[in-house]
Amino acid sequence: MKKPKIVILTGAGISAESGIQTFRDANGLWNNYDIMEVASPDGWKKHPEVVLEFYNQRRRQLLKVKPNPAHLSITELQKYFDVDIITQNVDDLHERAGNKNVLHLHGELLKVRSEKNENLIYEWKKDLKLGDLGEDGNQLRPHIVWFGETVPNISKATEIAQKADIFIIVGTGMQVYPAAGLIHYLKPDTEIIYIDPDPKPLPVNLPLQTVKGKAGEKLPEAVEKLVEKYILK
């Protein structure tokens, strides 16, 4: 039996089980912040110090948490299959778990960039402050794709999705575009495994297996089944 090409689309739910607060859940960050004040170019222009502190808090929190079983199960899957990960998350938990081939759609929290040159990017684990400048002399800002900004990696993500034989969706309610639109680029025979605590119907006419539950429980089970089906038999 030929081994399938597997692509995994992950969202905030996979990291929430590590203790990272999400935006969209009932107790999410959007209840505590006006999202347009901390995640938009206009918010950055109006009060950059508020934006910097918001991401400084997120960065400090990230450095205290660890990957969970969902992340680790992907590392196990990559031992046997050609796997690509497309993530909407800005944390580095995939990488810390040993996951390879990770494409970040919405930027990375542990990186910053020049506010005038999006290609001038630096690794960054400490607080970012006003007066921290890039080598071009401009203020550094979080390396995050804000509302109203283009998603630079969406074309690459589309190319990856088009190659999938199995497309696993985990930790995302498929509400955020353009990431949610990737399912419309899948091949006609692509199998979808959709893992979510409260899965909503997906607008696709493809083989779909919906699994209700948390990523940390159900993704390792799905990985085990894939290994059994394609590797152990």
Describe the structure.
The protein is α/β, with parallel strands linked by helices and 233 residues long. Helix 6 links the parallel strand 2 (83-87) and strand 3. The relative contact order is 0.19. Residues 25-30 have low confidence and may be disordered. The protein has 2 domains: 1-20 and 68-106 and 152-233, 3-Layer(aba) Sandwich (Rossmann fold), CATH 3.40.50; 21-64 and 111-144, 2-Layer Sandwich (SIR2/SIRT2 'Small Domain'). The protein has helices at 12-16, 35-38, 41-46, 48-62, 69-77, 93-96, 154-161, 215-230, and strands spanning 6-10, 83-87, 102-104, 107-114, 121-123, 140-144, 166-170, 191-196, 208-212. The termini are close together. It contains 8 helices and 9 strands. A 6-stranded parallel sheet has the order 3-2-1-7-8-9, sandwiched between helices. Strands 5-4-6 form a 3-stranded antiparallel sheet.
Please give the structural blueprint:
Layout lengths: L5 E5 L1 H5 L18 H4 L2 H6 L1 H15 L6 H9 L5 E5 L5 H4 L5 E3 L2 E8 L6 E3 L16 E5 L9 H8 L4 E5 L20 E6 L11 E5 L2 H16 L3
Parallel strand pairs: 1-2, 1-7, 2-3, 7-8, 8-9
Antiparallel strand pairs: 4-5, 4-6
Helix pairs in contact: 5-8
